[in-house]
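Checklist before submission:
- one chain only
- standard amino acids only
- sequence pasted in full

Submission:
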Amino acid sequence: MEKILIADDVPANIKMLGEILKDRYEIVVATNGERALKLANDCVPDLILLDVMMPGLDGFAACERLKASARTADIPVIFITASNTEQDIVRGFTVGGVDYITKPFNPTELNARVRTHLELKLSRETLKRHSMELESINNELKEKNVLLGKALEQITLLARTDNLTGLWNRRFMMEKLKEEEIRFKRCKRPFSLVMGDIDHFKEFNDTYGHECGDRVLCAISAILRRSIREQDVVSRWGGEEFLLLLPETGISEALIVARRIRERVASNVLHYDGAPLKVTMTLGASAYDQQTGIPGSIRNADEALYLGKSQGRNRVVEFGGRS
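Returned file contents:
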């Protein structure tokens, strides 16, 4: 049952209001402004009928204090007044009242006004609750979207990287090569490719097992990462082969990078089960060839690589035969 607080210093008025409302609402009464504030704070009624003229704290002052408290601010206040002057009516609305009822009371009017403001209060509370629920749902959706975004980033990264070495995979490298080719056509800035292959890699697998081969691949991948610039791209092209994309790099500079990699690999001694492993690499370098495009340029680097292998391995060869 909805609760109504009646605050009036005239007992006859309280009795009359109570008789009109008691069958539909729970009634709480106060005979002065201070008592009305205490009861409102204690029981938080659904609506307050507040007499304007009371000794001590009058209705206007009491309403101001009710609206200043977070606990009672949302309780609708209907002023009870014998005056219907415009000044009093405006002041009642100014201090936070929602309506006023003039004495003597008309039961039908009183019930209608009370019912209207109780329903409005219920509607406001329902809207507020729905708004909070929607905000909660929206926050949950935002959190889920963040998680989904991170999951998508992770899936995208996994789809572009080699599971063993963590280097970019062949698919991603092809995307970057196409991007670089488009940039070349627009800006005419050269770029080069370096294809590298671990020498005698099969022997590591055959002698020590595939775990050893995986260790070698990861170690070489780490050296490759440390040997290139931030804008360069290195990928595991397949098996023990690696492909490097060097943007804005001519063939001379590409050969310098390739030689640096070869030297670092050759000087790095790995150990597996206490046994030292001597690992070397052969690398072939080619500048981008506009005539043959990306496929032809990759073939050129690959041909240079296999020429280096035929010449004894552990070397760098430029496409066209120059070491």
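Reviewer check: The chain has a mean pLDDT of 93.
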